[in-house]
Write a structure and sequence with these properties.
alpha+beta; three-stranded antiparallel sheet; 27% strand
């Protein structure tokens, strides 16, 4: 995953999935990486990652997505 970078970080899985779908709808492939503790899901976060060359466009889309 050296060529991937996080563009959205959230503690909520549903928000990561919505962001991922929004990116896909705009032609940007993304991966959701769950970094929460398996024993304590409230500890940690979830990252939505895209390829580095897609970061500027993805970040702009994420800004529009965020409430």
């Amino acid at each position: 995953m050296d060529n991937w970078e996080a563009v959205y970080i959230t503690p909520e899985k549903y928000l990561a999935e919505i962001a991922q779908q929004m990116l896909r709808d705009n032609g940007i492939e993304s991966v959701v990486l769950d970094k929460r503790d398996s024993a304590y899901p409230s500890i940690g976060h979830i990252e939505v990652m895209v390829e580095k060359d897609k970061v500027p466009v993805a970040e702009q889309l994420i800004k529009e997505f965020e409430p």
